[in-house]
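Still learning. Show one?

>
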Amino acid sequence: MKAMISTDMKRMNRKIVFDIVRKKRSVTRVELSELTGMSGPSIMAIVNEFIEKGILTVTGKKNGSVGRSPVTMIFNPDVMMSIGIEFEGNNLSAGLVNLDGEIRFQTMAKVPSSFGDSFFEALCRSIDKLTGILEKEGLTYSGIGFGIPGVVNPDERIVNFAPYIGVLEPLDISEQIRQLEERYKKPVFIENDVNASAIGEYYVRQSSEETPDILYISIGAGIGAGVILDGQLRRGGRGMCGEIGYSLRDISGVVSRKQTGWLEEHISYETLCRNFEEYQMSGKVNEEMTAYVTAILCPFIVNLVNTLDINQVVIGGQLMLNGGNALLQAIRDCVSQLTLSEVEVRSCTTEYSGVMGSALMASNRLWNTIL
């Protein structure tokens, strides 16, 4: 029992140091000892192990110190990379992503919009293409993260429902995931696609700021949210946290797993194209459409912000890419008028947040493999 406790303590200490160097990027042994409260010998042992594993790289002396200059070490984000997969409509993107959220290589393809043998065959072709590139570059990866546009049970590997890809009843995809793991000899993790994006945005932002809570909203073919509270993804007991597409304006709405919800119906890509010809023809978001989106979307953002006391909202998806700064600023102005406290409204750190987030979701499930 004592040996188990000692092992757990060592693993916890390594994780503490790992989280610090991942965020600070550049550190010395003295700084690590001061930040963690660990003894010099304990820090020395962990640092030496991290250098040997490639987690840290020695870069030289730190400037400005008196006497013997401490050795500076920098974090290596490429020490663990994973493949992230984003699936929306008929589009599938797969990319190799490091711990900074940087997409090193990426491939995109058209795929069937429903989960069947044809889809998984197309998925394998995309992964094969990407792994072929990695082999030529001499690179490897630790796992595969797969973002699915629907309510999923990641542990049971079940898609409970996902109307946009034709899943109206619970669908067990554990056998397909097992086959992927057997084929690529890597662990595969599934998650709701917007939850995965929220995870990615959270970890990328953590490298430069304290961000305990994030409300992430994606507006593409449909709309969904991912909620990070105190650094943890809030999934909910039934995996439905963030399904804001089913939000209602009044009691006249109909809620059914077999169709999209009121909010999603009014702000989906299909609806916007139907109501705004210019958007359908060129993807341009004009002033009229900006006003429409802002009026529909902002009350729901504000209700969540006021209820959960979240101070940062990140908005992504194709609509935000098309709308740009004008749409973002309109949402900012509206939210600021309706919230009780100051709230930051930002755009995504990358155009491919689903790829980045799915990969980082996998890497963060596997961090113990390198510690």
